[in-house]
Amino acid sequence: MKPIMHQFAHNKYRLTVFGLLVGASIFCxxxxxxxxxxxxxxxxxxxxxxxxxxxIPFVIAYxxxxxxxxxxxxxxxxxxxxxxxxIFFPNAPYILTDFQHLSYAGSDIPVWYDVILLIWFSFTGLxxxxxxxxxxxEVVRREFGRWFGWGFVVLVAALTTxxxxxxxxxxxxxxxxxxxxxxxxxxxxxxxxxxxxxxxVFFSLFAPxxxxxxxxxxxxxxxxxxxxxx
Amino acid sequence: MYTQIxxxxxxxxxxxxxxVLINTACLVCVxxxxxxxxxxxxxxxxxxxxxxxxxxIPFILSYxxHAVSWRRNWLYLILPVTAFLWLIFYPNAPYxxxxxxxxxxxxxxxxxxxDVIVVVWCSWTGMLLGVISLYLMHDIxxxxxxxxxxxxxxxxxxxxxxxxxxxxxxxxxxxxxxxxxxxxxAMEILGIVIDPSMxxxxxxxxxxxxxxxxxxxxxxxxHMLHEHSSRARETPEQIGSTKS
Lengths: 230, 244
Description:
The complex is a heterodimer of chains A (about 230) and B (about 240).
Chain A lengths: L1 H9 L1 H28 L6 H22 L3 H18 L2 H4 L16 H34 L1 H23 L7 H4 L1 H13 L3 H33 L1
Helix pairs in contact in A: 2-6, 3-4, 3-6, 6-7, 7-10
Chain B lengths: L1 H10 L1 H28 L5 H23 L3 H18 L2 H7 L13 H34 L1 H25 L5 H4 L1 H13 L3 H36 L2 H8 L1
């Protein structure tokens, strides 16, 4: 019993982050249920699916992070989980682009309710992504050092933006890469060779945004350490 | 002298990083809106720049207050004034989130996805300006009056700012109305408080919870980093002993 309590005290804040994200997800679903019961329509039900997809990379990162503390597990599990994580990761920040559904909103419920609903969903999704990216960065940093850790973050930011673009405009899903890898590779290659203005602008606006949020969270987190060390 | 300056920058590197990042983000937001105006030759979203400026005011107030708060006599001189001004202007920062509803009035002139990115950039920057300034104020309160007072402060501010956003969004009052004609504004606010509508209750409830969620999440996330780095400093033997 005592070691368990000790574990809890030792990982207090990690558990709080986890608990908050679970709580926020439940709250999101409750808000959507309320909307459905008032309007009688299941508009926005896809948000639950998107939020579920955003949880997948978080769980993978969490498991990888825990497993990577015991070294012998690390080399067996990392290649598999890193691939899966990378495939599913864009789903987390993808929820941000769901804001565009506001422009097709009907008048069955005041628009401010839809706004706060989408804000809840998108913040939860993006924070799920940020925390899981941080966990993966820690794994990389421990194995290969600081610079690799940051290189990894920049690479992920770029790949995620490509992933979101493919999901939003070309309507691919994460599992297509497992289902029909040939088609997907061909299609992606074609787009990489002939980029449209839309894809270039989207990329150059979204990737910096993603990096900005991550860096700010990271620097913000360390503000506290600076104060403690003083 | 040179090493002194270098040490100063090194010791405060995260503080400086936060400051530079958020101000760069503000510039990016302005550039995005300007690009939108130039491209479509319409004034859509120009209001975002003004809102962003208003969101920036409480940030700079709390930043200055926090910087001087290490000196006691400065603090007591400056705190009453800045705390009051900060409280009046603070709701402007999270208010940026409600600008997302601009997307519902289908704009035109530019592709929808571009508008989504512009508004998302602006609203997130505004929101984070708010969270950081709340965090800095929370830190001052925590140091002066203790833990409990610090957390009560966060709760109260979350509730008050949701109410402030409601007043700004639906009653169309501005921060400076309270300075210009305080009596009239106070009466108007009192009228709303005495006779709350369902909309007010729901709106305040949902936003208050949201702000608490974000603040707690960012707070625990930063302490999680602390958990990590303090563990990294422990010796392997200690790590072994905690694991068993």
